[in-house]
Amino acid sequence: MGKLIYSMITSLDGYAAAAEGDLGTGAEDQEVHTFINDLFRPVGTYLYGRRMYETMVYWETADEEPDQPPHILQYARDWQAAEKVVYSTTLTSVSSGNTRIERNFDPEAVQKLKSEAEHDFTVDGPNLAAQAIRAGLVDEYHLFITTTVVGGGKRFFPDGVRLDLKLVEERAFDSGLIYARYRTT
Q: Which segments constitute the Bacterial bifunctional deaminase-reductase C-terminal domain (predicted)?
């Protein structure tokens, strides 16, 4: 059975998307990227909302750009090999391999996918993740916390949900970014 992991870069004040600007620095360096590559290489399926998919589809062709460093090439190859499910009512086609569109997020169907999976899943994007969290499907939370307070935006955790989590791993990077992995209890 695969685990469902929710992981995003977040601001120090808990936002996965800033109301204005970006989430700050720390995630773009080679040390962090290599760590993320190793962490998510075993993922077999990415669950995306439309907006997150449109951001991540960059990796479909990133390996074709000249002079890419090895850690970027590796992430692109790993991403291309994984299955992708995009939940969207508006998207009519996808531009990446191993990708399908689902019109609605169905918690029972995702639970069935998890129970039949040999590899882990990720749910990416705060809106889609909120649905998975509310349905009790998320097994682990991986936060990459920047050193920036952004003051508003889309929160990593949805409002109105209580979670009791156990910290199982943490790491501080030279860039100031902090990684924290939590498991549901």
A: 3-178
- The CATH number of residue 61's host domain is 3.40.430.10
Determine the Cα–Cα distance for residues 76 and 113; give it in Å rounded to an integer.
24
Give φ, ψ of 178 to 5 degrees.
Answer: -120, 130
Q: How many domains in the chain?
A: 1
pTM above 0.90, yes or no: yes
- Give 145: exposed, middle or buried? Use CB within 10 Å, 0-12, 13-18, 19+: buried
Query: Under DSSP, is residue 20 helix (H, G, I), strand (E, B) or coil?
Result: coil
Strands 99-102 and 120-124, by their bridges, are unpaired
Res 27: pLDDT: 64
pLDDT in tens, 127-151: 999 999 999 999 999 999 999 999 9
